[in-house]
Structures
1.
Amino acid sequence: MSVRPEYIRIVGTGAGERLWQLYGFSSPEDLVLENIAMAMNVYVREGDLDSAEARLVANHNEGVILVRASSGESGRRRFAIAHELGHWVMHKGVSQLIFACSEGDMLVDYRGSQAEAEANYFAAGLLMPERLAKGFIVQLYCRDAIAEMADYFRVSFTAAATRFMDLTGEYCALVVASGGKIIRWRGNDRFCERFWVKVGDPVGGQSIAAKLSSQRRVGRGDVPTHLWAVDRDVDGGIAEFCEESIYVERYDQTLVLLSAFE
Amino acid sequence: MIEREKMDARAWEALFNFVFPSDAELSPSEIQEALRAGGVNCKRVKERVLAQVKAAKEQETARAALEVAKARRERISAQVARFLGLGLEKSREELLAVIQAKVSGEQQVVCFNRLEKAATDKDLRSLLEDLAILDAFGEQEEQDERSA
């Protein structure tokens, strides 16, 4: 039996947000993930991990979360811990001993693996509860709002952008490009109902992203929708996306935010 | 929703007497009558106040548990060092054999086999450490329970 997508999202984020209520947290500074995990019988540590961002090893009573020591920025590390904690909270009934989760797993939504999606929604709800995150939602050109959101909630830009997409009512997608090609993308429900981005396609030469480099790292502008996506709506109506692109030298990747409204 | 300005002092007093009946100077029916006259839905108000009290108590317990967890984490962290470097001398095959022996049950084995393909030797060593920490963690918990 298939589970309704909105059910996965509501249950996942709800379980994460519930901890704010339970502990009476009022700001992200209250959220010490290592202590919250310990209160749930899960010990968090850093160590060697090449093939995953983080890993949960658990029996029925206790768990150990290992985060890759070289995980880099603290926002990425926090999301990885919250994601594994999501597995512990939501998949405790499953007698699976080990969850080893890659960077790709941390981006999965309900269109991918259900277990990974649930863990991601849990992490999003725990790190960025809707009640506080909604204050950051703007209609178009959302990069600055997302950057502020990432800073406030102490999460990565990607995690903040993903939460932003889930909460905005407008067409919105985040595309990741590397080596001149689209390597992954994620859109909100509204975007995905209408547009489709092809992984593996080359980044269009007319796009803002194509003009970025280590010398010019950010750019924004209006671009034709066909540069990035296939429009399923034959009648059109949306001719352009607001494209905001950021080149991240550390990962040699370009993050592309696409937004539009009718 | 009841608006504060719409309730006079008598209604407030009646409301508290209703929610905390042990302090009541009036009989329950008198209290309910006074509240009804003030336009208050007694049943709903009582449910909401009691729910808030329950949530506040749960929060107090959860926060206390968080403090205990913080101290417990420090105790475990102090012990973790003795598990680091486990399996350094072992070959990949030996590491796999030790880990597999600890992994039991059909579902776990399936999961482990999937992991095994992607894991590097470093990953297997840290997995061995995690399994040892997990065992020690369980023993620590039993000790904590006994001393409590």
2.
Amino acid sequence: MPDALAISLNGKSLSVRPETTVAAAVYIGGESSFHRSVSGEPRGPLCGMGICFECRVTVDGVRHVKSCQMLCKQGMQITTDV
Amino acid sequence: MSQNFDVVVVGAGIVGAACALECAQAGLKVAMIEQGIVGGGATAAGMGHIVAMDDSDAQFALTRYSQLLWLGIKKELPKDVEFETTGTIWVAADEEEMGEVRRKHSYYSSRRAPCEILDSNSLEEAEPNLRKGLAGGFLVSEDAVLYPPTAARWLSAQAQSCGAALMQRQVTATTPAGVDFSDGGTVSAGLTIIATGAWAPELASDLEVKKRKGHLAITDRYPGFIHHQLVELGYLKSAHSITSDSAAFNVQPRATGQILIGSSRQYGAEDNGIDHRMMRSMLARACEYMPGLAATAVVRCWTGFRAATPDKLPLIGPSTKKRNLWFATGHEGLGITTSLGTAKLLVDQIVGRTPAIPFEPYLPSRHLREHVYA
Amino acid sequence: MVGGGPAGMAAAISAAESSSSVLLVDDNPALGGQIWRGEEANPSLRAARRWNERVKRSAIQVLRGLRIFDQPRPGVLLAESSDAMREIVYSRLILCTGARERFLPFPGWSLPNVMGAGGLQALVKSGVPISDKKVVVAGTGPLLLPVAAYLKRHGAKVQLIAEQASRAAIARFGKALARHPGKLAQALGIFGTLAGIPYRLGCWPVEAKGDDRLRSVALQQGTKKCEVECDYLACGFHLVPNIELAMLIGCKSRNGGVLVNEVQQTSVPNIYCAGEPTGIGGVDLAIAEGQIAGFAATGQKQKADRMLRASARHRQFATVLDSTFALRPELKKLSRENTLVCRCEDVRFDHLAQCRSWREAKLYTRCGMGPCQGRICGPATEFLFGWGADSVRPPVFEARVESLMATEVSAPAVRV
């Protein structure tokens, strides 16, 4: 098990511990907005358990990923939709 | 308790609401009777497309006429009706289907419906997410989509602002004098219009209208994935099929960026549950044309019942069997499109106006029994 | 078992004492559900460690990161992970799908950094830094104090805990706790941790304020108002059972929970249900019900019967939860006209107030038609307007087209 995972958040390099979720990585990277609502409001996670869909981000090009239920992997590229 | 109306419209789906508005605008005292939610029946289940369709001259005449009526009022429609002239591209998979494209182009052009033939390059440019290797397509640029429940609600509200009444009651029977309700009440009407779609035979038992079940799925938001309504040229083959269940490629962009995926047709299915086999074949057909759909997330699936007649034309006009009973039903997959045209033709007959197009092909008195149910 | 929280683990272990093959499926990357989140990798709670170890030592097959979205025919479940689809064939099913927090709208509740109480705890357990951050904990329910204690132990500066239940209700709850020694000990531990933090009863949030994220919370207690600067607001209004899969399968419900008999069997003979979906009752009841279900589903009737008294005792505690944390009527009046109620579709309170039923609201405003499928706004509109939910259709969770097509499965069907 590596000591840290090297990932990127909105183009910035970030280092996180293994077992960190993508949602946590966004906060560690200093952001609190994950995506925009249909009327353009900035939004972040609400339920923390994969139900509210407010934590969605794009991971490795795939849209609408529920970041609170996905673990970071080495080399992962995360982009928020703000 | 009884009230006197010139016209009672049973069923406030998009067709009933359009009829009520037309009646009210013609100066008739009209009541809409809806047992559920206005626009909550097949209206709510359907794809909300407004298409000029050429299965027959009569079908084209009615759909094109009605489409022009929609285009005429589109500026009045509120934002939540989401009216969008997306256009339709009929997709041709091979040279044989391109032959059909050319036939359609000649047909539509001669009837002054703006349209264009797309070769495979321009098709790809118009819709990059269609699979490679398609032969081309036929673009009908004045086709549109809207969100039907709010459209029906708007039509109903407009009717009411012209003096129409809306009652939430259940009609159990019609008589030459009006309608009877499930709670024992009645309403008097000079004439009664049945606009209850697939449930019309409940009030007119020998009516040649059958339920034709359809499935739909809607995805999460993928703005820009698709720009036009897309339909395969085999769609009409599906609409033709007599006994077999069929699925055809038909997808639509919604104003929300969601992708609406259809279409399927089944006879003889009375329950409204999801049929997994039908859903799978419909989704598979869609993925054959747009492989990128496979990775999109489906938020909801649902079903609805179209009202199908033996000759694929609606019933617009007086009953041949009962006095003071009229029909505005049997619209199959074209209820949204032809709602406005239906209302015009019906009221033309009721008050004796000259219609913009002949209404004879849609009269209930035409000889339906000579047709095999198709 | 569907759900790898306390009930699911207990059911799996109990079922595994028979000769049946047992599969435990959970949609999170690790087992534990909500209350034991993170315990699989980093055990800290005695009970969680015990159950996790028993699962590890057993022959139970565990599938993580897999979310069930449909039962196309009896005995077959379809599930999706981030990159695959699996078909699961079973002869008996135990649903342990847990609960979710109830969210009520108030002005500003959709700002980033306003989350559920359990929600913030789950995020912190998953790596969100909370050290030195100012947190207000608010809402209602048995989660508030444990969450506040957890956050404080991990370095958060908890400014205030606001519980909308009255002093009298909480006093009665305290008395009930005293009759359950284990819970009392836990409660005393929590109070110890929280010494020095204001704990206001009969107090609730009225506005979350901020620009692109939360900056402060305004609260009301009786006629008094106050405003507290903070980085996070952890606010949830008790729990609602997750019963959607049970409803899809055809199980009957009662009072918002899955209807079960005394051995946790639902109205569908080979389907059992244990834990929060049968009614919110806490972790001890969930474990007991899980054991009973696991034994009963595998024909170990005597072992199931032996557990009945323990579960009855824990169920007494459960009935206290409902009455203690009942929602006060003032909470219905928090929204302004433009406060969003449905966050997926940005539907305002005033547009919803014009509708007469859940279905009408769905059709006209799209409330409940977004990806959460009404799980967030449904309980809110039920409280605000008295609307009941619709029937459930597949998929019960958003699922990819390729998963719904179910023609290409990524691996052979899992059969138990």
3.
Amino acid sequence: MTMNAEDIIKRCEELHDDLHFTYVKDWKAARGAKAIGFMPVYVPRELIHAAGMLPVGIMGGGDNLEIIRGDAFFQSYICRIPRSTIELGLGGRLDMLDGMLFPAICDVIRNLSGMWQMMFEGKYVKYLDVPQNFGPQGRTFYASELADMARAFERISGNEITRDALNTSIALYNENRRLVAALYDLRAAAPHKVPTSDVYLLMRASNILEVSEHSEMLRDYMAAIGDIDRPVRDNVRVVVTGAFCEQPPLSLVRALEQSGCFIVDDDFVLGNRYQLKPVAVGERPMEALVEAYLGDTVATASRYEEDGDRGAYLVDQVRARRAEGVIFAAPSFCDPALLDRPMIEAVLTRENIPYTAFKYAENTGQIQVIKEQTGTFADSIKLWGVQ
Amino acid sequence: MESCYAGIDLGSTTTKAVILDSHERVLGRGITNSRSNYELACQIAREEAEIDARFVVLSHYLERTGSIRQHREALMAHLSSYYSLAHYLRQLEALREECLGARARWRCSEDDAGKICEAVVFIFEAMEKEAPGEFQPEKLSKTDFFRDLASSAYMRLAEQVSIKRSIPFGRLIGLFDGAILQVENRSFAGDFESYLELARLKTLEEPRFAPYGDEISAAVAATVGVPFNVINTVGTGYGRLTLPFAKQQIRSEILCHGLGAHFMFPKTRTVLDIGGQDTKAIQIDEKGIVTAFQMNDRCAAGCGRYLGYIADEMNMGVHQLGPMAMQSKKTVRINSTCTVFAGAELRERLALGERREDILAGLHRAIILRAMSLLARSGGVSDEFTFTGGVARNEAATSALKKLIFENYGDMTINISHDSIYTGAIGAALFAKRDPRGVMADLEISKLKTKKKAPREIAGAAGA
Amino acid sequence: MTIQTTIQKEDSMIVQKEMIAGHFEKLAKAGETGKKVVYTFVPGNLNELIRAFDMLPVHPEVNALQSGMRKLSGGYIQEAEKSGHSEDVCAYVKSDLGMLKKGNVGPTGLPLPEPDLLLLSYTGCFTFLKWFELLKAEYGCRVVMLHIPYQAEGKITQEMRDYVTRQIEEVVVPALEEVSGKKLDRGRLEDMLASSARAEELLVDIWNSAKNKPSPIDAYFGGVFYIGPIFTAFRGLPECEDYYRMLKAEVDDRIARKQGPVTPDGEMSQQKYRIVVEGPPNWTSFRDFWKIFADEGVVMVASTYTKVGGLYESGFRHDPKRPLESLGEYCLGCYTNHSLPARVKILQDYIEDFDADGFLINSIKSCNSFSAGQLLMMREVEKRTGRAGGFIETDLVDPRYFSAANIRNRLESYFQMIDARRAGA
């Protein structure tokens, strides 16, 4: 069923706004199957899928969720995503999840996994301790983590994760990543045709929709936008970085574009395109998943970089996408993003790439101030070029 | 000799005092907005409480005097408003003296100085003339602080005078600003007798009371004569400098607040206090002893001060915010209660076309959400729930609070009292009475001798 | 609550101060003496291994806290913020970077040597990872990652053990050999591990002494001095063992004489409240902070912060018979590498084992590793023990986040609450 772009995005927005996760409930009911939730940034969704379960990305409550109980768990100097996640949990909205995964990205999420164990006894909770050693030692350890999870997934779902099932899932996710990459390429090539607010919503939808459905949606969208005529604007091409965990509100994403920027690359919902190459399908898919984490991935704040400098990946991104500047958009109190920033800024300065930085929260209400800032940034690039 | 116990609460904007008798009944309550000198603030608040207690005694006396019992309410209204008038006039006099007394330091020509003096004299004459109008016995007046009453009158008159006499308005205001602090930080309670005397005289001018001259005079005399023997005083409050009490006479404001709330509402188990600069969530047991608490005292977000900023931004009075918010018809979600950004968020919403009423409603809800967090952190909300503090007088805030409590904790009794500002002082006074360490020496601070002045003619009394 | 006005120092206090000062002197001379310098972290520090190669360890956390105690950190933090660091991030990191930018003069006034190696023992704290990335960017030197997995399920699995042991064997040791130019002297390592185990035994006795009434030690304010030698440059060395023997003798002596700990104002005469404390202390106003408690007659009988460099009461000892494996186990067992449920249990056990009247959480703005989840921990511990929890908020070394009035207010309320409940009970 092909829809036009507007309808597709409308659907995505509905999914984005639905904090009762109706889609997930319906999906489970229709198949009598289970769902496993996960937090940012990356988990091997293929493994969940191969067990016949739906992977559900939980990225906080956004700007439509009032925090009433969640604040009782965190002091004011901690970011918002754990509060809203607990709010969702305590409000019963995550009851349809049969497990929750917490990948290792920072101490807040790490401790949240322990809190989750205490607060939702009986639910499967797994802290996925992704390795920061990418050699043989890390390989062995990570393989054991995945094996441990696979056993749990089999137990929860009642399905065996066969080699074939895993290969099938890997292939589906490879295809999905290919389409996501194609979308990003399309946007970079013709950003006036592919608004980032659309891309953002499509990426958020990848957290909820079953992967084949999402892939179809991407295909439909890319086919549909070809028909839309949007005027080319004299906007500045920028890369947005820092927003890999707590997501900005949609209004902020829109404001960035309205302020005169074309976002030609970003790290929103980074987990759905973590791998830069297809994951190998074949004799040993579990090993392939392990390799898929160890090498050929994006660089991001919570992933240790053994060789090279912090920021080199970003510079490559900027060059590859012909961007003119970088916008650091980090959530307030986000240790990984904020500690990264000075290192990256130094590298950008060396490479003569202009940048600007601000902080947001998933429920930021003061869009105007940020818009002025990024607007001025865009203007300064337009007027004076590269400084 | 009446044994009594005093509790004094040094809050961030006002200082409150409560006097209890030996049966733990409230004898009197006093409040002052003097804050800069802690000792003085304590003294003035306590004096106000004693005065209040004397009026209670007076009322009881009238109650017991059969012949005039029927007129008791009217008599009390008359006596207390004329008393307040006398007190006000005395303060005005002091204020005028302060304004003029600074003349030597004025930097202007002799001519100009003369003009200014005349203008000031004129203004104060007018204020004295208008004063009786503010203190009509029939008027249900809320107790405004001297500063509030005087400044609104002064501003208005000064504006007229400045235009008419070509005197810089700022000059006149400057005089007021300098003088008011002096007057605020001075005790006038020593003249209690003379004010009451004036009030008595003026009351007896009223035809319906004239026949009862003797009874009324006897009541007044008894009132003045009652000695208060304050056996123990306990202080509480939040001061960066040390509170002016001995260590054994200080109790934490959390405990005082908890016990005070228990006194007013014995069945209460959760207490929320949103003050000017901090918020407290307190859990108490059936005896009024605190079992858990949480404070937000580092950040003014969600406190009274936040509303003050909003009021300034909107060019409104703080007391107008609530009523306007109640006119809201639509939910506007305000995401930041940070006082620093209050203005920015407000302006942004207005620019987006939102109505002020709706924005205000959103702001009130945001404040209450913060309070809900604190309550959750302290252990939740248990029946009965008591809401105290300045913000409790804001109907939009209480409305938002009730809604959220019912939604999240179910139906329960919610206590909101006009007298809740005295909660801490009541608790302190109770501690003073129940102090297990035995009888302690009275406070050293109130050493001011009572100054007796001859009853002064109340200006314009006949004509008013 | 205190009876003397002159500041008393115990001999062991003087000794540990000298040890640390001596170490800073050695570090200042590292260039001359040709000693190689390894920067590493307190949690997960492999001191015996580093020392077996004759290298000198530097602990940036210790530099930061020392700078805090000497009131230098405020300036360093501002320097770091000027160069682009956010107000939201860890104050230790900012203090360290600020110190670097201002000439890398250490807290004792002596210059600090540049690292020959950054040994990133990544345990218990994500910020460590960023910290050494930042230092690598500054120094351009080699970094070795030792990833210590998190005890998320409250236990150490064989896979976790193998992962760490293999990293030490296959990555850390070769790097140390390369940088030092020496081969690992296994015999020497084993001797040091044996010495460590003896010192650890003594330390556990010292912690347990707080079960006495009155407690002869303050396990928090006094405790941070006790952990100096064993958590930093001296574990495995003879002077470390000597120090703990001396300290234990002092403690035993105080037990015999029923004496309390020495506080900044002298000996505490009456211990009114026995409290367990969770969270690091504030360093910039350390003495004032201590005094607030000492004045109220509070003695800390157990603390979790003093276990960041090893939770020895669990029974763990460094083991010469399994050198690399026990080093790995050590890293896995540091307090901040424990799950939240495990931390709740540790607090509960402390409260019960040390017969505490209550517990206090000092929530540190900078430190998400400790702080995220403390509110839940507090309620859970209250539920399990029936003892009230107090909650205050300060910071490690950012002086802007210490408000004595604030803290006093909350603490007074807390202790009066305990009093009132005692009276009512």
